[in-house]
Amino acid sequence: TTLAVMMLIAHSIPAEGRIAAQCGVSFIGQAVIRLVVAVIGGVIVHTSCQAFGWLDTPARIVFTPSPDVNLLWWALGEVRNLVSIFCVIFFVMLLQRFLRYLKVADLIGRALAPALRVLGMRPAAATAMIVGVITGIVYASGVILKEVRSGEMSRHDVFSCMTLMGLAHAIIEDTCLMLLIGAHIGGIFFLRLALAFVTCAMINILYLRFRGDAREPETAPNEVS
Q: For a tag site, which of 92, 159, 161, 210 has the least CB within 10 Å?
């Protein structure tokens, strides 16, 4: 569970950090935040288990890799993964446009406004945040970049959104994957979400204290490299 918590918080940093950089957020800053929170999460799980004797039984590993997998099978698997990613991104963007057409995204944004305010985001960031947390930064990259380019999100919205997604994204897929190697859901799901929310809330408090009201209409750059 300790290993899984740290991996889920700080994995795929080169790829996901690049997407954050294209949104105008510092790659190094996101990498540092994720690595620091990953270490904190690992320390919390380890010290809690040591102190209270939790999770001291052998891990029940459900997934057993095939011993016959070779380089060719791996390459074919990666090709299938790329095709799958393309299909998922296409349908996620299609769903996002459909929800926006039905004004569902606006309703979700208004419903989540109090929680988003604590995390440093306005309702305009709701769609990108929800899609990223559920499907993952890579899968949701098309929606995220589109929302940033729209100019409706401030720079602080983008930073808070990318930070939250960096710490807790693909919560369904990642959680199921780590359950297969014997991790406990209390750490890989609940603790991960708690660390993401607390980190974003603390950063927003510091931002409000030193930079003023984060809700000022400061737009993010429309030009994405």
A: 210
